[in-house]
Design brief:
about 400 residues; alpha/beta; Rossmann fold; 2 domains; seven-stranded parallel beta sheet; six-stranded parallel beta sheet
């Protein structure tokens, strides 16, 4: 008999956590009986969720804690009013009161061997919250796990206040060993329960999409760099534009295509204009399929200020794309020097790193040759997930 796993998350809104959850259930769906409880069973990523995996929902008041205001407004006036009232209450008194009230009317979810809060607890004043608390109070699973997807040096989410929710879990799982070590340095009281498990990848889907033809055609006479990310402060694309501008001017045959959108797009556009490199740096906007570009680029670039375990590393490797990245808590752990270049996480470090690569382009050819012998797999993730969900038995 398959073991029953319950995963609890906020919604199918676009985001790295939701994408990694979809990859996980696709990878594990044949081995376990997996159900997903979504506070808000809605969002743009729902179309990618496998049809054979059951999605369940909590009561109406709990569903409020998975919606932003715009989404609640689409659901009707009653939902919108409840979301506004809950949001005001959370900001004035913290979300403990609204979550306690919502859980009064929530039946306990029973019959699972493992319950996983796949989304972390955010600020105590955030309405979209309560995942750890739901798993702790409203499931009877003998093994209860909390997942962590961030680097606590840069994002805290009121960790000190939320530490009590973490301590009640049987396991706290980070998405890389580096993130685990960093988390433990901030919260040594978790030493007995903290561990890690790498994100799963939908390898077949990435390979299939990498064979499709993208809307933008790379010039084969150029050296084509590519980035796929949301345009946010974390990804720091304007900083990278400033860092790379002198190197790009020095190498007029180099193009840098950036796929993605977000709040930082205006700053990206301003940086491109300020550096006068609009003929070499192209903002492509959001795309459902970055993988065809990964497969055909000469160099994949991820210039983030911080990362815990970027899924895009694995996706680029599946597409056989050499990687240029800033150092983060998991970069040396997840990447091999045979097919990647990791630079200092600063403007000077990025500038020097790209200048070195473009001045020694045979390195990139060596990376590509080495990638022909490399195959990205989910083997370590499978093994670790099995270990984590059986401990304590």
């Amino acid at each position: 008999m398959k073991r029953k796993i319950l995963l609890v998350d906020k919604s199918f809104a676009i985001g790295g956590i939701q994408s990694s959850l979809i990859n996980m259930v696709k990878a594990l769906g044949d081995k376990y009986e997996i159900h997903v409880l979504m506070f808000n069973n809605n969002g743009k990523l729902k179309k990618f969720f496998p049809k054979n995996i059951k999605v369940i929902e909590p009561n109406f008041l709990m569903r409020i804690h998975g919606m932003d205001v715009a989404d609640a407004k689409k659901r009707g006036i009653l939902t919108y009013l409840f979301r506004l009232i809950t949001g005001v209450s959370d900001k004035l008194f913290t979300n403990r009161i609204s979550l306690w009230f919502a859980m009064l009317f929530q039946k306990k979810i029973v019959g699972y061997d493992v319950a996983i809060a796949y989304h972390h607890e955010p600020s105590n004043k955030a309405t979209v919250s309560g995942f750890y608390r739901f798993v702790q109070r409203k499931t009877d699973a003998p093994i209860k796990i909390g997942w962590i997807h961030y680097d606590p040096e840069f994002i805290t989410f009121d960790d000190k206040k939320n530490l009590k929710y973490m301590q009640k879990m049987d396991k706290i799982v980070c998405v890389s060993k580096g993130a685990q070590d960093k988390f433990l340095s901030y919260h040594p009281s978790l030493s007995g329960i903290i561990d890690y498990c790498y994100n799963f990848h939908d390898i077949d889907r990435v390979l299939y999409l990498s064979e499709q033809v993208g809307d933008v055609k790379f010039d084969s006479e150029k050296f084509n760099c590519f980035t796929a990310c949301r345009l946010s402060d974390q990804k720091a694309i304007p900083r990278a534009i400033e860092a790379f501008a002198p190197v790009l001017r020095k190498n007029p045959d180099v193009m840098w295509y950036i796929a993605g959108d977000g709040n930082d797009r205006v700053n990206c556009e301003a940086a491109i204009k300020r550096e006068n490199i609009g003929h070499q740096v192209i903002l492509m906007g959001a795309t459902d399929n970055p993988f065809s570009y990964m497969k055909n680029c000469d160099l994949f670039i991820l210039p983030s200020i911080y990362e815990a375990a970027p899924m895009v590393y694995g996706e680029a490797l599946i597409c056989k794309a050499p990687i240029f990245t800033t150092v983060n808590v998991s970069s040396y752990e997840m990447l091999d020097e045979k097919f990647s270049y990791i630079c200092e996480n600063s403007i000077d470090g990025m500038r020097a790193g790209l200048d070195y690569i473009l001045s020694n382009r045979k390195i990139v050819e060596t990376f590509k040759e080495n990638l022909l012998e490399y195959n990205q797999t989910n083997n370590l993730s499978y093994q670790k997930f099995e270990e984590l969900t059986r401990k304590g038995e």
